[in-house]
Amino acid sequence: MHVLITGASGMIGQRLTARLAREGTCNDRPISRLTLTDVVAPPKPAGFAGPIEIRTEDAGDPAVAEALAALRPDIIFHLAAIISGEAERDFDKGYRINLDGIRNLLEAIRQEGIHNGPYVPKLVFSSSSGIFGAPFPASISDEFHVTPLTSYGAQKAIGELLLADYSRRGFVEGVGVRFPSIVIRPGKPNASAGGFFSGIIREPLQGLEALLPVEDSVLFTHASPRSAVGFLIHAAGLSREQLGPRINLSMPGVCVTVGEQIEALRRIAGERAVKLIRRAPDKAASDIVKGWPTRFDAARATALGFKAEKDFDEIIRIHIEDDLGGHLPN
Amino acid sequence: MHVLITGASGMIGQRLTARLAREGTCNDRPISRLTLTDVVAPPKPAGFAGPIEIRTEDAGDPAVAEALAALRPDIIFHLAAIISGEAERDFDKGYRINLDGIRNLLEAIRQEGIHNGPYVPKLVFSSSSGIFGAPFPASISDEFHVTPLTSYGAQKAIGELLLADYSRRGFVEGVGVRFPSIVIRPGKPNASAGGFFSGIIREPLQGLEALLPVEDSVLFTHASPRSAVGFLIHAAGLSREQLGPRINLSMPGVCVTVGEQIEALRRIAGERAVKLIRRAPDKAASDIVKGWPTRFDAARATALGFKAEKDFDEIIRIHIEDDLGGHLPN
């Protein structure tokens, strides 16, 4: 089985690649070949026996989509995307990568099937809870409408619609995975509005101060990077019959307040860590976060077997295992 | 004020044009100039004092969108579309006209504003209840999700998302009008799956037999062509503040069963007309209709002042007034 990953250099892309390479299977089906592509060269994963092709190219280029479809991969994980903040700053780039990227890929797959014989790959598309826009009900059901308040959210919502229509027409077997907030992101603090959700855990665990720009009562739904990878792999194993026509699914997660995140940190790393969180209220950041969805029902995804962590303690422990070598630095 | 209508040769386009030309205003604002475009030349409306430009061109061509935006119309009614059945038969044409058509137009408007000075027209987009897909709740609320089961529905849903994002970014003042079933359509019976909703009234009123392929219990939401025109004009008069960020609206209508349609016909044209309806059950037609949305809540549109008929009798009377010269033919 040939697996293609676009956006393979991203945080999720690298972890997905590493897991598939290490296990050599995807949902118990052996992987014979890996193709990795991104705008910056993805690192070559360890432990994979078969051939690995590393490609450096632009996900918004129709010729790239054609070349990828011509490889006729059996499973495609389409993770290539411009993040929310960048899509908002650079309108053209956001539409080119986030909308034209998936559309070109879908059309290239269809044309490959038309011109070179039947070809209907599994296509797993990384979508986002950003397809939803405030105001929200107490819990967002699987039947809540899609009214994004960012260009990123609009682009992902359009990608979902294209994926569903191309799937319905039999050109591809699509499944859209709407990620909740994925924490704890490794690396340094960044300027993204939601960066603090990771930062208030990541920095204190390393003995560093972290700024908290919002109130402790802010509610949000999170899953670990390990769960995100699990969502993608599980999605690739679902059949057309299991999915039915509504192929885009809100993923489960751990819904907690910032205060509850901090209590989890206290249980795992003690008062000394918690003291490193400094309240620095920022109305602008607070207002952005208020536009984001808080709690998901995710009943369909749960029924289909998607699994996230049970509580935020588990998310922190996974961060320690996967990013900190299994123990606290200090 | 300069008004542009795309798809001006269609049934709704011609009636919208005729009303704007006759009244010389749109929501009490004087119209100084009319531009009408379609792939077949729109007829020149009567009674308009100002200049009328008639254009024959392809709504899917980016150069056409650029040329239209360069005219800097104040209000654009974008009605150009390939109908549902054709979009399903011709996948490429559907995407080119129904998706690229609105995207090209939005982008041409944005580029016009960037290159030739501020330009933010009002853009009224004809969408459809086809953006929804079964299974449905008893009544489809304004917050029900968008899961089209046709390519036409997917294309319209994507158009809505693009319109909302371009509006949010300030490039255009968009409003999407989701039409219910529009009846009674004039003309001859056609092969469309929902054609009988008009046919079982139109033909008997003229002393002709009409086939009814579905059961009398089938429920559907209708408005007259006169209401459809009213929706578009009312939409053009709504401010950004009235609309808020959720600019795509399900229109109100008269929700009746086929049996109730027939009872309305009996009240208006008597038993002789009703006897011309011949039951001809057709499982294929029946199955298609079962996938269509039945009843809408349309609370937001109603609160914003959109109005449809009160009952199906009124829809029949409007057909007699607007299409049959005000009296029954026989």
TrEMBL record, chains A, B:
Stored Pfam families: Epimerase (PF01370)
UniProt keyword annotation of Lipoprotein present = no
Cross-referenced CDD domains: Gne_like_SDR_e
What SUPFAM superfamilies does the record tag this protein with?
NAD(P)-binding Rossmann-fold domains (SSF51735)
Q: Which residues form the signal peptide?
A: none
Task: Keywords in alphabetical order, please.
Answer: Carbohydrate metabolism, NADP
Domain of life according to the entry? Bacteria
Q: InterPro entries in the record, alphabetically? A: DenD, Epimerase_deHydtase, NAD(P)-bd_dom_sf
NAD-dependent epimerase/dehydratase domain sequence ranges? 3-208
Q: What is this protein called?
A: SDR family oxidoreductase
Q: Which organism is it from?
A: Bosea rubneri
